[in-house]
Specification:
The structure is a homodimer.
Chain A lengths: L1 H25 L4 H12 L11 H21 L2 H32 L4 H12 L3 H10 L6 H30 L4 H34 L6 H19 L4 H13 L4 H25 L15 H19 L9 H7 L4 H13 L5 H25 L9
């Protein structure tokens, strides 16, 4: 029976995600890394316990929409503005330098332009979620460097999603056309500007409508419908669905229902989001990392990981305020996390990034996600005892 | 694109569910009635906006599992025991009388024995959720009659789920075999006894294991995995998956994490459960209710509704304690709600109940669900002003 297979699949996916996530957290790492590893282990590459059928795939896609909606809700335009030009400078450097470095490395290795663009784009990502989580765990969320990193990560997220829209659009049209890029860029910017204008001007009207609902779960379900509708709209005009979900979160982040929506969305995200990360891990082809196999990509993965880390550390140098430490900012920008996986996954879905290169990119994401929390803990070590 | 179709389908289903649920609540009715009507309207019978594909079907099935898990969590063995023999007597009468009356009516109308058994079983249902919700809304949850109704509804739920297991098993084996019924009855009883024993003896061990997890969402996800595993186990030994989910809820209802699990499960249920009720409504064939059509079932539906209401009022007569009012108990047992739909749906899935009779049963469920809240409000009218 099909439903029985789904039940067993969900049990294995959720159980593996939580056990591996738990183990990683006890080792001082982030849960997302455990979820990725869990996917690698239960996936076809190792144990082959679970097959990604239509329903599991759909649940994973809904999971990543919910994640981006949550990230949008956590993003705060006001905080971003208060973090000032310093955060924006770090974010721009944190997009331009990794993109250029990734593009240059891949071109130098002889890959086609579009592949180099996708790899460069993947390296631009910064995971707001992981960075914020690590800083919270260290009790350093309100450190000057932490504020800059958070602000920069938010801007980086927006720039990254724009980049993703452009890159995905280019992959869909099949050619690097300047006119196409400009058109897609304009569409993306218009879409996000409309979202920001709605956020600033019309969000209270929307919230007023939602607030009038009294039935159980009305707030959460109507917010989720709003996010799904924005995702469908983004997809309909040719952008990625996650951009719509992010924009919906951004709109609601400016309203008084934000905290309530976040609070009620959290349990749903707790269940749905790991499904995404596990299925991402399930896509890793370990065989591609065998250094003795023909066409091995382990060297490429390690070279890309070095570039990925070094280029974000360079972004930290954009800090010019004397009271803000540069190292924590640079290291805080390093984890690519779910955003990097979304980029790599979009490249795979667009058939631009081959499976072996995709696996290499997942390894890069895993290395950056693994290194940053441990490194930040070392940087902040003297302060751990006084953490809130 | 398949995912785009799912997005649009989910938006329509959730939006229709919440708007219709909201409208019904404002009319003093229960949200579940609105969700059913919403399904009728957006389904193939009327507007044809949404098609129940594989993914939507799977989400609805997960929704009903989550609902039964929630009902199990709300069920309280201790409260049930304190409500005493009176509640058990009402519950037994509330199962035996409607079953006999429904079976007799259908047999008299010339239906085969198995069909009459399924209809009788459907009439035994009582919706703990709806009854508890209505009593809460009226501020009368701790009324003596309310305690008896709640206790009886819990026993009724267990008896009903046993009945469903027996009836589904009979449908699967294709014949009314006394040996088969006994075997299934024993399997059901053993399964629930094991669940109760675990609840009483081993639940703290389970909770100790869950409580040691620290990662975000660990409590909810591990509880949900437990419910899914119990559902898969129940299905594996030949019972309905919902019985497993209910048993899992019953086990966790005895532990100190119950409140936390309920609280975190609620937003997930808010999103998932309406999907089930809407897809149930989508299965209604309005044409079967046309009194002028050949093979019309409207007369059957109305006769069954009268039997359904009268037989539960008879159960109220089993109240013998002088301090407890009989009418609120009888009326409180009337709403069939989601449990009745599960029975009718199981009959449809087993190809025992035909589509036109299924539609008639859904109408019976809707009438009983519609009548009870209004009737209870009338019975409790003088006390509304002093409600907590």
């Amino acid at each position: 029976m099909q439903f029985h297979e789904l039940l067993v699949g969900l049990i294995v996916v959720l159980l593996a995600a939580k056990l591996a996530g738990e183990a990683m957290e006890r080792l001082g790492q982030t849960a997302v890394l455990g979820e990725l590893l869990a996917g690698v282990v239960i996936g076809p590459g190792v144990l082959g316990l679970v097959r990604e059928g239509d329903v599991l795939h759909a649940l994973a896609e809904l999971g990543v929409l919910i994640l981006l909606f949550e990230v949008g809700l956590e993003s705060d335009l006001a905080k971003l503005l208060s973090a000032g030009p310093q955060a924006i400078l770090v974010a721009v450097a944190g997009v331009v330098v990794p993109f250029a470095a990734g593009y240059a490395l891949m071109s130098w290795l002889g890959h086609p332009g579009l592949v180099a663009v996708f790899v460069g784009a993947t390296l631009t990502a910064t995971s707001v979620g992981i960075t914020a989580r690590v800083l919270t765990d260290l009790g350093r969320l309100h450190d000057p460097a932490a504020t800059v990193v958070l602000g920069a990560a938010v801007v980086d997220d927006i720039l990254g999603l724009l980049t993703l829209a452009v890159v995905t659009g280019v992959a869909a049209t099949g050619a690097v056309s300047l006119g196409g890029i400009a058109f897609l860029g304009v569409k993306s910017v218009v879409f996000l500007i409309v979202a920001v204008v709605i956020a600033l001007r019309r969000a209270p009207v929307l919230v007023g409508l939602i607030g009038r609902l009294q039935a159980r779960g009305a707030l959460l379900v109507s917010s989720l419908v709003f996010a799904l509708a924005a995702a469908a709209a983004a997809e309909w005009i040719g952008l990625a669905a996650i951009i719509g979900a992010f924009a919906a979160g951004l709109i609601l982040s400016r309203t008084e229902i934000r905290t309530q929506v976040e609070e009620r969305l959290k349990p749903v995200a707790d269940v749905m989001v790991p499904i995404f990360f596990v299925t991402v891990g399930m896509k890793v082809e370990l065989s591609a990392l065998n250094p003795f196999a023909p066409g091995a990509q382990l060297g490429v993965a390690l070279a890309l990981a070095v570039v990925a880390i070094a280029s974000k550390l360079v972004a930290g140098l954009a800090v010019y305020h004397p009271g803000t430490r540069r190292w924590p900012v640079g290291v805080g920008m390093v984890p690519r996390g779910e955003v990097g996986l979304i980029f790599a996954g979009a490249g795979l879905a667009a058939a631009v990034v081959a499976h072996d290169l995709y696996s290499a990119l997942v390894v890069v994401v895993m290395i950056t996600t693994f290194v940053a929390p441990a490194w930040l803990r070392i940087l902040y070590r003297p302060a751990v005892a006084t953490a809130v």
